[in-house]
């Protein structure tokens, strides 16, 4: 029989090792799944995880895809530390794109240098506004933020669909459900010629550094760490739970909104019914993969970005359905959570556990 | 009045998957386990039911497969949270993400397949009675099962000894353990029941509600079922009322156009989600009621201290 024995202290080595172990186990299971689907597992894994990044353009695309994931995950991780479960980042991303993108559409013949910064601000406000609803409902009415933030994701997606099918449809388009293209002044500058790497990628790096400073140097960062590790103690010392809910949801929402704006003002360049392949949900996995730490999230974001690129490539070259990406992401999160147990417990083999049990 | 019968019929069919999934989750939560993976379990149940029905031609086999698929999904969750003591919220999310991907992968071969919808009950003479006939005696058996499940769950929790033990485990796992009940085993069983019912709910969607497979065809119904359990304050009777109220709201969009109400379809589609938020707020703000009815140990890991 296998049993778990609590460690006196969390194993520091396992904190770093467990994500690596989880990735390795995901690859093994992934190989088995590919074999079941009649593909050579080594070819398939190579196509999925190596081929996308064996050239410089591929690597630049990795940064493009990692950008929204990292920005959103840093915001979410702060909440997860304090047991605030914002899982509606996808909706906040959409609202950020609507707010910031709406400004670009309103000033569609503008050449002003102020347009882009104003879009940044509105994008962040849009996301924060959408996250403020679950914050208000949780603090005022005790409503579970998991369910409210998720329900609001459906509402935001439908609202975007309404806008691009109706009032914001491109009057010069061919009745496609798309907005006008944003003016040049409303597009993110490319920071590396010949690629799609845009200003948002630089912002993502900044967000990681700022998140790390916030967590390690600020009072609220200290409070977040304590609330996560010892909620009882935090309550006794008088940390205000409500303030924590507001802070993490607003910040997480603002970052998700900014990420959404970066998508529409960057790679997409207009509003359309679908603006994200589930970045808001994948960012949840990124946050855990990075062990809720901003620097870890940077690496986690790159790894999850690779699953998107690999999925696209596997679809084209191997004819695998795109859903493989989601499957990999789910399996990885399972293994991450399972391996986490190693940081808190030692695994013992033997049957001594049966002793002393009455039932 | 000729619109009334079709209207009631669509309300019943829209309510059934919610009722099935929510009555399973109610038992899971009563044992102190919060499984947020209902959406994922429903999707895997839906594709398992559809794939087996389409391949074998037998809807019964399909439904059995959906139940097994739901149980297997719930076992992943149970192993991670109950045996390895992983965080229940995160594991539930993982189960949903996995379920979306897995069902889409398996389902990619079945897009565009057509199957016969589940046959409705047909009692000669009686099912043909106007109004009452089609509503009460013309449904498929999963509809009757969903009603039976609510009453069964209600009886189990209120009257049976096993139900009492289940509630004890959910309210105070340390006491239940001290008396000699196996907390982990009971929670495994409760989680598996939730998985089986979510699988059935998925099968109802892909075999009866819309007899086809489409990626993500649950469209958030798993999450609405979770909200329904809170709405019902963990009481089966209110679950029945809540599920039918949600069924009513979600079919309003189908009938609004016919009734000459011209609101953009997207706004009508928002109604079930907005309604979920509103009822959550109304119910949750009564903190005393939540505290009285919610399982006290919900979401907490249990490790026997010998």
From TrEMBL, chain A:
<keyword id="KW-0812">Transmembrane</keyword>
<dbReference type="GO" id="GO:0005886">
    <property type="term" value="C:plasma membrane"/>
</dbReference>
<feature type="transmembrane region" description="Helical">
    <location>
        <begin position="324"/>
        <end position="343"/>
    </location>
</feature>
<dbReference type="InterPro" id="IPR001851">
    <property type="entry name" value="ABC_transp_permease"/>
</dbReference>
<feature type="transmembrane region" description="Helical">
    <location>
        <begin position="13"/>
        <end position="37"/>
    </location>
</feature>
<feature type="transmembrane region" description="Helical">
    <location>
        <begin position="114"/>
        <end position="137"/>
    </location>
</feature>
<feature type="transmembrane region" description="Helical">
    <location>
        <begin position="197"/>
        <end position="215"/>
    </location>
</feature>
<keyword id="KW-1133">Transmembrane helix</keyword>
<feature type="transmembrane region" description="Helical">
    <location>
        <begin position="92"/>
        <end position="108"/>
    </location>
</feature>
<feature type="transmembrane region" description="Helical">
    <location>
        <begin position="244"/>
        <end position="262"/>
    </location>
</feature>
<keyword id="KW-0472">Membrane</keyword>
<dbReference type="GO" id="GO:0022857">
    <property type="term" value="F:transmembrane transporter activity"/>
</dbReference>
<protein>
    <submittedName>
        <fullName>Sugar ABC transporter permease</fullName>
    </submittedName>
</protein>
<feature type="transmembrane region" description="Helical">
    <location>
        <begin position="57"/>
        <end position="80"/>
    </location>
</feature>
<dbReference type="Pfam" id="PF02653">
    <property type="entry name" value="BPD_transp_2"/>
</dbReference>
<keyword id="KW-1003">Cell membrane</keyword>
<feature type="transmembrane region" description="Helical">
    <location>
        <begin position="149"/>
        <end position="168"/>
    </location>
</feature>
From TrEMBL, chain B:
<protein>
    <submittedName>
        <fullName>ABC transporter permease</fullName>
    </submittedName>
</protein>
<feature type="transmembrane region" description="Helical">
    <location>
        <begin position="263"/>
        <end position="283"/>
    </location>
</feature>
<feature type="transmembrane region" description="Helical">
    <location>
        <begin position="31"/>
        <end position="52"/>
    </location>
</feature>
<dbReference type="Pfam" id="PF02653">
    <property type="entry name" value="BPD_transp_2"/>
</dbReference>
<keyword id="KW-1003">Cell membrane</keyword>
<dbReference type="InterPro" id="IPR001851">
    <property type="entry name" value="ABC_transp_permease"/>
</dbReference>
<feature type="transmembrane region" description="Helical">
    <location>
        <begin position="188"/>
        <end position="207"/>
    </location>
</feature>
<keyword id="KW-1133">Transmembrane helix</keyword>
<dbReference type="GO" id="GO:0005886">
    <property type="term" value="C:plasma membrane"/>
</dbReference>
<keyword id="KW-0472">Membrane</keyword>
<keyword id="KW-0812">Transmembrane</keyword>
<feature type="transmembrane region" description="Helical">
    <location>
        <begin position="239"/>
        <end position="257"/>
    </location>
</feature>
<feature type="transmembrane region" description="Helical">
    <location>
        <begin position="213"/>
        <end position="232"/>
    </location>
</feature>
<feature type="transmembrane region" description="Helical">
    <location>
        <begin position="86"/>
        <end position="106"/>
    </location>
</feature>
<feature type="transmembrane region" description="Helical">
    <location>
        <begin position="141"/>
        <end position="158"/>
    </location>
</feature>
<dbReference type="GO" id="GO:0022857">
    <property type="term" value="F:transmembrane transporter activity"/>
</dbReference>
<feature type="transmembrane region" description="Helical">
    <location>
        <begin position="59"/>
        <end position="80"/>
    </location>
</feature>
